[in-house]
């Protein structure tokens, strides 16, 4: 799969089917993009679980923060990654260790690692990279 362009129906299917989203790199700071996107997703009805090892046990947007993906006590449909691109491979590795596997790993704007994407896709996980669900949602869901 090419990650240079995504068909609107592919994005629509993802955003229309996922319910539980783990947001890796969540921040409590309102000026940070992850904070705004988390609020947007919550307002759209998604169950968003923030992941940030330095804030574990605290709350962001009223949601308990977990240190790692493995610490989340429920299945995850999608992982939204707010980390530098060089860390996407580590997030994919952590996702591949989950049972059940997430349906989607979504790398935010500027987050792309084609090798990591190949590993995820080989395991049956859809990948979206260098996109923001808060930008794509109004484009494909309205």
- The CATH superfamily is identified as NAD(P)-binding Rossmann-like Domain
Number of domains: 1
SSE ordering = HEHEEEEHEHEH
- What is the SS-derived class? alpha/beta
List the helices and strands and how they pair.
Blueprint: H1 8-17, E1 20-24, H2 33-43, E2 47-51, E3 59-60, E4 63-64, E5 78-81, H3 88-96, E6 104-107, H4 114-122, E7 126-128, H5 133-140
Helix pairs in contact: 1-5, 3-4
Structure overview:
- This protein has 142 residues and is α/β, with parallel strands linked by helices.
- It has one domain (8-140): Rossmann fold, CATH 3.40.50.720.
- It has five helices and seven strands, in the order αβαββββαβαβα.
- The chain has helices at 8-17, 33-43, 88-96, 114-122, 133-140; strands at residues 20-24, 47-51, 59-60, 63-64, 78-81, 104-107, 126-128.
- The strands form two sheets. A five-stranded parallel β-sheet has the order 2-1-5-6-7, sandwiched between helices. A two-stranded antiparallel sheet has the order 3-4.
- Strand 6 (104-107), helix 4 (114-122) and strand 7 form a beta-alpha-beta unit.
- Helix 3 runs parallel beside helix 4 (114-122).
- The longest helix is centred in the N-terminal third of the chain and has 11 residues, at 33-43.
- The protein is globular.
- It starts with 7 loop residues before the first helix and ends with a helix.
- The mean pLDDT is 97.
Supply the key terms.
alpha/beta; 5 helices; 142 residues; Rossmann fold; 33% helix; 18% strand
Summarize the structure.
This protein is an alpha/beta fold. It has helices at residues 8-17, 33-43, 88-96, 114-122, 133-140, and strands at 20-24, 47-51, 59-60, 63-64, 78-81, 104-107, 126-128.
């Amino acid at each position: 799969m090419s990650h240079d362009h995504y068909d609107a129906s592919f994005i629509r299917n993802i955003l229309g089917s996922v319910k539980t989203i783990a947001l890796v790199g969540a921040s409590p700071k309102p000026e940070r993009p992850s904070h705004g996107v988390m609020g947007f997703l919550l307002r759209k009805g998604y169950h968003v679980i923030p992941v940030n090892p330095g804030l574990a046990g605290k709350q962001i947007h009223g949601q308990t923060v977990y240190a790692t993906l493995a610490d989340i006590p429920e299945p995850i449909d999608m992982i939204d990654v707010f980390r530098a691109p060089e860390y996407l491979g580590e997030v994919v590795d952590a996702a591949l260790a989950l049972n059940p596997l997430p349906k989607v790993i979504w790398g935010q704007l500027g987050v792309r690692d084609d090798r990591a994407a190949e590993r995820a896709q080989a395991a049956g996980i859809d990948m979206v990279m260098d996109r923001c669900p808060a930008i794509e949602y109004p484009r494909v869901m309205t």
